Request: fold
Amino acid sequence: MKPDYKNWMPKGMVLGTLAGSAGCFGLAAVCGCTGLIKNETARTAATGVLLAAGAAAGGAALWMELLYRAFSYDGKRQMSRQVIEGIADFVTLPEGGIGLDVGCGSGALTIACAKRNPHARFVGVDRWGKEYASYNKPLCEANAKAEGVSNTEFRQGDALKLDFPDESFDAVTSNYVYHNIPSRDRQTILLETLRVLKKGGTFALHDIFSKARYGDMQAFVDKLRKMGYEKVELIDTTNGKFMSPWEAGWMALSGSALLVGKK
Reply:
C-alpha cells in the first residue's frame, strides 16, 4: 500500500481552468465567424474580450500544471517531499514526548515527524475545509498506516483557537498553513501556535513570511527572543534550501522561510 499525500494544486482545478480557456476560444470563434452579434463593433469587442480571457485562462492553466508537477510526490522535482523532510529534520522529541502539526492536510508532515521520533507521539490537526475537499482525517490515517506509522493521531481543529491547554506539546510544526487564513495579524496566529509549546520545546513553522502577509517578521523574531524564546531564527528557504530563487519567483512563493527556535 502506497501513501497518497495528494497535491495542493488539485488536478481538477488545472483541467477546469484549461476547459475554461478552450470555452472562451470557442465562443470567440462563434462570435467572430457567425452573425450571432449583428453590430460589427460589438462583435469585434466581444471577440477580443473572449480571446483575452481565453489566453489568460490558458496561461493560468499552464502555471497550475507546472506547479502540480513540481509539487507531485511522484514527479521528478518532488518539492513537497523536500519541504516536508526538511522541516521534520528540525524536530526532535524526548522519550514519551508529544508534538503538534497545525494544518496537517493529508498528514505528510505529521507522519514524517513521527517516523523520525518513534519513541514519541505526534498529533495532526486541521479543519479540512471545502477548499481542499480531498484532504480529510481518514486520508491521514490511511497514509500513516501505509507508512507503517502507529504513533500518530489526527483531529479536527482550528489554528486560530487550538483546543489544547498552554504548554501541551514538546514540539509544534506547520507547513504553508497560515498564509491561507484571512487575517490582518498573522503574527497573532503564530503566537497561538506557540502558546501550546512546552518550556524547552522546539518549533519549526514554514510559510510565506512576506511583509505583505506578516508585517515585519524580523521584529517578530526579536519579540520572541524578548519573551524568552531561544535560538529563534528565520531561515530563508528560497535560496536553495527547499527551492531556488527562480522557482520561488515563478511559483509565487517568494518570502518562504522557516521560523525555528526553542521555548
About this structure: Residues 40-71 form the longest helix (32 residues). The two ends are 38 Å apart (CA to CA).
